[in-house]
Amino acid sequence: MFFKRKKDEVDNSMNQKNLVDKELIPVDKADFIQKMKDCLHDSADLNIKELQNGFTLIFLDTLTDKKMLNQDVLSRLEDAKASPNEALKHITVSSTSKHKYVEDVIDSILHGAVVVHSPGHPVIISAIVGTQENRSLTRPENESQVLGPQIAFNESLATNISLIRRFLTNPNLCNESFTLGKQTKSAVSLLYLKGIADDDMIERMRERIKSIDVDGILDSSILVQLIEDNSFAIFPQLLLTERPDRACAWILNGKMVVLVDGSVQVIGAPQTFIEFFQSMEDESVRWQIATFLRVLRVFSMIVSIFFTAIYVAALTFHYEIIPQTLLIPLGESRSRVPFPPIIEALLLETMIELLREAGARLPTKVGQTMGIVGGIVVGTAAVEAGFTSNILIIIIAVSALASFTTPNYMMGNVIRVLRFPLIILAGFWGFYGLMVGFCFLLIHLLRQSSLGTPFMAPFYPPRFEDWRDSIIRLPIGWTNSRPLQTRPLDRVKYRYQKNKK
Amino acid sequence: MRKQMNKLLIAMLVITLSGCAEQKTLEKMGLLTTVGYDLTDDKQILATMVLLQIDPEAAQSSLILSAKSATSKGARNEADLKSPKKLQSGQLRVALFSEEVVQAGLINLADTLARDPSISDLTYLAVVEGSTNKLLNQKNEQFSDISQLIYKELDQNIKGEKIPSSTLQEVLHDFYAPGIDPILPTLKSDGGIVKITGMALIKKDKMVGKINAKEAFYLKLINDRYQAGAIELEIDNEGFDLLESPEAPVKLAVVLDTIHSKSDMNLLSKENLNFELKVKLQSRLLEINQALDLKNPEYLEQLEKKLEEKITSDIENLIKKARESGADPFGFGEIYRKSVRKANLTPEKWHSMYPESKVDVKIEFEVMRTGVVE
User: Residue A500 — pLDDT band, cuts 50, 70, 90?
Assistant: First the structure.
């Protein structure tokens, strides 16, 4: 059962309560009903059904499957003797459990269980008859690709784990469950491969998850901010994916995967900077093409961050570096612009961000109009009105385009935002300011860690063996070792030997 | 608290210090692309500057300003008074000097160019026969920007291996090196176009003579490894079995295109200052002005031998000419310095020794291909 919790540990840390303080279940029927009503504040969907033979069934209408409740619980219990053991015997639901404390009973009701009270017994039988409100499995939207499996996680934790288990039919795949959030009591699962993932790393993750004290976790992207190393960093330090194949690839590399109930994305840890520029499709295509694409992505990141800033610096301070053939067209289009280059660049960058943000929140049909208005009308009109130079339009468009090549949405956002301080530095101090900004950025990146492991690995610290699957990807036989980053217990994935025939 | 104050201080610095950087916004700068220096009668410098015009409405894409002053920078300041934009020399491509200026001494002006960090080391330097002011001011309908014309002409010929390169960096290197003298191409205004006439021989920083474009090719052959451009050579008809025809020219002219060349200079004897110059030249025969049966290996061998003699005598003449003028553009002094222990060579010492030096020229010439006609 996925909802099974490490009750003692979790509850102790969460609620600072001792076992002794827990309230026992009232033996008397009326008392029990009253207790339940009190605890759930006489909720409108709270259904209390008293059977002829003495059983009292309590459940929430909205969470339970009527058909299952009737067939497997109600009709079975009608002829039974009113005792917990008899009830257990008759209920034909796979997940049943016994509870002694009021708190646990309430908890199971909230998870879609029907609780059965037998008069005179301080024990409650609960049976899960909850509905599984599930979206069907769809294609991945954010990480879509041509090759590879076309399936994405959905909002159900059980489905997501089953997807991973389908890829990794391995008894060593461990699943640890946690409950997080004082108010939401969200289920969180930690998955890893025993015998490959490093025990210290697992323990570190376990501690981080357990020590979280929040009222609710609604999505894995929120959980990731609670468990990452540095909340002040601009770069995300852990990756999220909606692809089960990618999650499995991580687990196979000795990483851990954290799933949150109700969240379509799963967290992988630890991660490195370069991993944000890799895609699962790189594994499917030929290695030369994969290498080309990865280099292209890193190049476009650099272009996206620095291109506009270089334009501003060159035009404001360093006219010397502009090639002479470019001087005249550049000067001619600039001579009509009334603003200094920094204002011009910031204006246009903001405009692109406005377009993107407006497009992201709009329905698709309106979005198309947006593209036309933004791209064509505003773009050409701005140049013709002498608002910006047309060369800057090209530069801004290229760097905006380049920022969308990053396979990871979160990293793409960071890259777009980073442009602004760099443009300002370039506009204030030219290349000198740009270098200062670059140094800050580099130092910032080098200081980051992901679950206690260096974020810039395998480049710093240099681990040349791992370069084989970093910015480049070598043929399949060469990338048969797990990255040192995860400190895997077994370094070698497989021995590669091609069949001679 | 202290930490917060520090952060506030940094934020303040970002705002306040941004005023300290001097802005040079592109469209507010008057970009000099070519500058020419003349000497006036009262020994002042007349600087002629070609500015890049980036006004789309202007008819001409360049603007020419000239100013007179005692120094080159002073002349620029003077010219600033005539310019709507601040004059900047960061886009300077060519610096021209009139013969008078170079005869009086080039180094002050060249050094100023090198001292300015915004000026590229790859700026071409050249000598103008006559007045640079007139050369830059000449009108021609064919091109709109004289500075582009001169720059492209020099660039094309230097990259095409026709004449030795003379960038600011190379000229200054040769000036400060004790055993070699700089050379500069000479330009001449010729009916609306600008022609490269040859190279100026320079002793220390003063112009002492001129060589023509063909001799410049030999100079390039000696100084640079690997490759040189094409050359036309004339040799005597004698000894060749040619088809006699009345209108045949007296001389046999051959055009050669160098495929590969290698030159090697050695000091044979340090007492007699005897140098040896070996040039190995492999070339392709491009054109020949008379009918000669090239399929016959005998004739080809004969032709090779004749050409070898011709090149040897040409190079010997060039060396003699340079030695008589006192300039050493070949760098024999550097070979001497390299070969002789504790030579303690200075430019003065070398210039006093140089006229006594002797050079044995050995040419190995080979025609690799005679064309695809065969």
Answer: confident
- How large is the average pLDDT for residues A204-226? 92
Residue A281: other Cβ atoms inside 10 A: 17
B138 has a chain A CB within 8 A of its CB: no
Residue A469 has what DSSP assignment? B
Its ipTM equals 0.81
Mean pLDDT to the nearest integer, B131-150: 84
Measure the CA–CA gap between B7 and B78, rounded to whole angstroms.
Answer: 46
User: Any residues with CB less than 8 A from the CB of B320 and at least 6 apart, and which?
Assistant: none
- Tell me the domains of chain B and their CATH numbers: 27-211 (no CATH), 225-369 (3.30.300.210)
- Please calculate the CA angle B174-B176-B181 and round it to the nearest 5 degrees: 35
pLDDT of residue A2 exceeding 80, the answer is no
Cα B323 from chain centroid? 19
CA–CA separation, B261 and B278 (whole Å):
10
Asked if pLDDT for residue B144 goes beyond 80, the answer is no
Distance in Å from the first CA to the final CA of chain A: 47
Q: Which residues of A touch B54 (CB under 8 A)?
A: 327-328, 331-332, 334-335
Report the C-alpha gap between A173 and A317 in whole angstroms. Answer: 59
Chain A: nearest CA to B88, how far in angstroms? 9
CA quadruple A308, A311, A316, A322: dihedral, nearest 10 = 170
Size of interface A-B (CB pairs under 8 A): 68
Token pair in block for residue A494? 């497989």
A292-340, pLDDT tens digit by residue? 999 999 999 999 999 999 999 999 999 889 988 888 888 888 888 888 9
- Calculate the CA B87 to chain-centre distance: 26
C-alpha–C-alpha distance, residues A124 and A88, integer Å: 10
How many angstroms separate the CA of residue B9 from the nearest CA in chain A?
Answer: 17
* Stretch (H or E) spanning B103: helix B99-104
Q: Which of B25, B88, B151 sits opposite A340 (nearest CB)?
A: B25
Q: How far is it, in rounded angstroms, from Cα B89 to Cα B73?
A: 11
pLDDT band at A382 (very low <50, low <70, confident <90, very high): confident
From chain A, the residues in CB contact with B120 under 8 A are 320
Mean pLDDT taken over chain B: 86
Length of chain B in terms of residues written: 374
Alpha-carbon gap, residue B339 to B270, rounded angstroms: 8
**Does the distance separating the beta carbons of A428 and B88 come in below 8 Å?**
no
> What is the percent of chain B where pLDDT is above 70?
95
Cβ–Cβ gap B56/A316 under 8 Å: no
From chain A, the residues in CB contact with B32 under 8 A are none
* Residue-wise pLDDT tens digits, A6-50: 444 444 444 444 555 678 888 888 888 998 898 889 889 998 988
Distance of CA A493 to the CA centre of its chain: 26
Instruction: For residue B330, give the nearest of B214, B207, B221 by alpha carbon.
Output: B221
